[in-house]
């Protein structure tokens, strides 16, 4: 046995150790945020285990209900939602929860209430966190611009389980080591390339796109500057598409179109967390009208168009929208 190798494993940077190190940078910190993150991580581990056992446990069938978005819920969606709601409330550090799967926001009972607002999509795994007033909690407390966020992240389940997190000091990726039951830092200080060679969009909606989006995709396929065409990669899962974009650069697009004039992705728990991560990694996030994190939602399930990715790609998209506006399109 390689006892020396095993001993070295105790010096790994776990996500708990990482967050504790970040906490030590703030003299006023009392550890509440670290406790909250540890409960979110526990939820991710539980869902990861459920995803891996889904076939055997026969929990991939439909639960026979629809969520507030009108999408048919699967059993795994329901389980994931329950896991995160319970984990967040039991942390004793939250006051208000907004989930994609619940029509109404969940106000945490006073006895278990803390100062953080958490908005999340339980199965896609994206979550983001903000501070709130613990005494008088209302749904309106969640309707803040994305620039008010203090942290965002997502967990990607599959053959390996990856947790990507930003607490406002860059973006870091952690991979679950099943033998230790710990998330280990594997992608420190993720920086998105300034330009990219991949574009990610559902081209099945092309006939309904606006002019700037159509022109941008045309330039990806038939560049006029003599460069090679960009490659199309579209998985259809926002978390997976954004994860690839963060690591390799390019652009992810879910524009407004004739069918969805307000866009399709939800502002609080899809647009905001991914925009926060993208900016923290050196990229940009744009709605077609403004910086995504400057949006102020009016309802907890509001939607928005979104363009996320490498700095230069989003600059090109901004120019196309400015040009279109100037031409009165």
UniProtKB/TrEMBL annotation:
It catalyses: beta-D-fructose 1,6-bisphosphate + H2O = beta-D-fructose 6-phosphate + phosphate. GO terms for biological process: fructose 1,6-bisphosphate metabolic process; fructose 6-phosphate metabolic process; fructose metabolic process; gluconeogenesis; photosynthesis; sucrose biosynthetic process. It is an enzyme of class 3 (hydrolase). Its EC number is 3.1.3.11. Pfam families: FBPase (PF00316), FBPase_C (PF18913). Keywords: Carbohydrate metabolism, Hydrolase, Magnesium, Metal-binding. Residues 192-321 form the Fructose-1-6-bisphosphatase class 1 C-terminal domain. Residues 13-188 form the Fructose-1-6-bisphosphatase class I N-terminal domain. One of its GO terms (cellular component) is cytosol. GO terms for molecular function: fructose 1,6-bisphosphate 1-phosphatase activity; metal ion binding. InterPro entries: FBPase_C_dom, FBPase_class-1, FBPase_N, FBPtase, Fructose_bisphosphatase_AS. Its cofactor is Mg(2+). Pathway: Carbohydrate biosynthesis. Belongs to the FBPase class 1 family. This is fructose-bisphosphatase. The lineage of its organism: Eukaryota, Viridiplantae, Streptophyta, Embryophyta, Tracheophyta.
